[in-house]
Design goal:
With 343 residues, the protein is α/β, with parallel strands linked by helices. It has eleven helices and 13 strands. It folds into two domains: 150 residues, NAD(P)-binding Rossmann-like Domain (Rossmann fold, 3-Layer(aba) Sandwich), CATH 3.40.50.720; 175 residues, Alpha-Beta Complex (L-2-Hydroxyisocaproate Dehydrogenase, Chain A, domain 2). The chain has a six-stranded parallel beta sheet with strand order 3-2-1-4-5-6. Bound molecules: nicotinamide-adenine-dinucleotide and (2S)-2-hydroxybutanedioic acid. Nicotinamide-adenine-dinucleotide binds next to helix 1.
């Protein structure tokens, strides 16, 4: 990509709540930079068409210099024709009391045709981010229907979990979010995920694990304080934040999900810089995660490709959580396999 070459970006579920938070940020240049014009393609089903068309009118009214064109369609093939970036947001969101497994059934008809349309018509460099839940397994379904697109180009979003982990750490350590790096979320974008702070660093070069005892003093004390805080507060808070938002807000996270999607694609296209981030991408067997599953790893983007950070030591506690989350991914894969959606 060179500056000034327009990029075609398809957003599915454009009439929904994430779509409404996401499209204006993409159009303003927050995702690819203000030097890259964007052509937006808004893909909806008939029930969401009016909302998407209304959003398109508002996008026009923003007069963003970066916005080259907007098309709204319900035609899946037209939606992905020539697309460079596909953001698969459209899906039924989880309501109170629902688990992600409940959504596999509801969303299975969406991701197979979309994968096939990407295979047939998208640009050669297409990059896909699945946001719609259950995101990892939906990405697996879409990828299975796009045999000509490298599997590494189908990713699922765990950047929101990653950002949640950074924010919780920053509040606890009383430092800016920008001061913390090298935190990882492993596994599934679900309550089984494995947030891992073992390699985290604070700008002053202290490790996050070394900085925590002082920050926790007065709240928790003694030699087990950090482990107690991780297991009793930090991990459940990050892993169950989606459910907390649903309970407090009455509907699932939208603006924070949109912000995470912007971060994910920004870093994929423009590079990660000095820290790694978390992305669910196809496993090559690294860290004992079954090859072929789409699982979250610590990754850096080099030359517009997500590379898994190698050689990190994984503690027994994190290992156990990763194994549980990967087992959940296997179970989801087996469920969609039994429906004939993946080989
Ligand atoms: N990965 C994450 O971190 C994360 C975070 C938040 C939400 N989510 C998920 O994102 C998805 C969207 O959430 P939302 O709050 O915007 O939901 P929403 O109900 O507000 O919007 C979904 C939109 O998708 C549309 N849609 C449904 N099927 C479609 C299809 N086949 N093609 C195109 N559009 C289609 C609907 O008409 C609707 O407008 C949900 O699955 C939600 O669980 C994921
Ligand atoms: O948890 C959900 O269902 C919504 C979303 O995946 C989230 O993490 O906020």
């Amino acid at each position: 990509m060179s500056a000034n070459t327009p990029m075609t970006i398809t957003v599915t579920g454009a009439g929904g709540q994430i779509g409404y938070a996401l499209l204006f940020r993409i159009a303003s240049g927050a995702m690819l930079g203000i030097g890259t014009p964007v052509r937006l393609r808004l893909l909806e089903i008939p029930a969401g068409l009016n909302a998407a068309e209304g959003t398109a009118l508002e996008l026009q009214d923003c007069a963003f210099p970066t916005l080259a064109s907007i098309d709204v369609t319900t035609d899946v093939s037209a939606g992905f024709e020539g697309t460079n970036i596909a953001l698969l947001v459209g899906a039924r969101p989880r309501g109170p009391g629902m688990e992600r497994g409940d959504l596999l059934q509801a969303n299975r008809a969406i991701f197979a045709p979309q994968g096939a349309a990407i295979n047939a018509g998208a640009a050669d460099d297409v990059k896909v981010l699945v946001v719609g839940n259950p995101a990892n397994t939906n990405a697996l379904i879409a990828s299975a229907h796009a045999p000509d697109v490298p599997a590494e180009r189908f990713t699922a979003m765990t950047r929101l979990d990653h950002n949640r982990a950074l924010a919780q750490l920053a509040m606890t350590l009383r430092v800016p979010v920008s001061a913390i790096s090298n935190v990882t979320v492993w596994g599934n974008h679900s309550a089984t995920q494995a947030p891992d702070i073992a390699h985290g660093i604070v700008t002053d070069s202290r490790g996050v694990p070394q900085a925590l005892p002082e920050a926790l003093a007065g709240v928790l004390g003694g030699p087990g304080a950090v482990a107690e805080w991780l297991g009793g507060t930090f991990i459940p808070r990050v892993a169950k934040r989606g459910a907390e938002i649903i309970e407090v807000r009455g509907s699932s996270s939208a603006a924070s999900a949109a912000a995470a999607a912007v971060d994910h694609m920004h870093d994929w296209v423009l590079g990660t810089g000095s820290s790694w981030t978390s992305v669910a991408r196809v496993s090559d067997g690294s860290y004992g995660v079954e090859a072929g599953l789409i699982s979250s790893f610590p990754v850096r983007s080099n030359n517009q490709a997500w590379e898994i950070e190698q050689g990190l030591e994984v503690s027994p506690a994190v290992r156990a959580r990763i194994d549980r989350s990967v087992q959940e991914l296997r179970d989801e894969r087996d469920m969609v396999r039994s429906l004939g959606l993946v080989p």
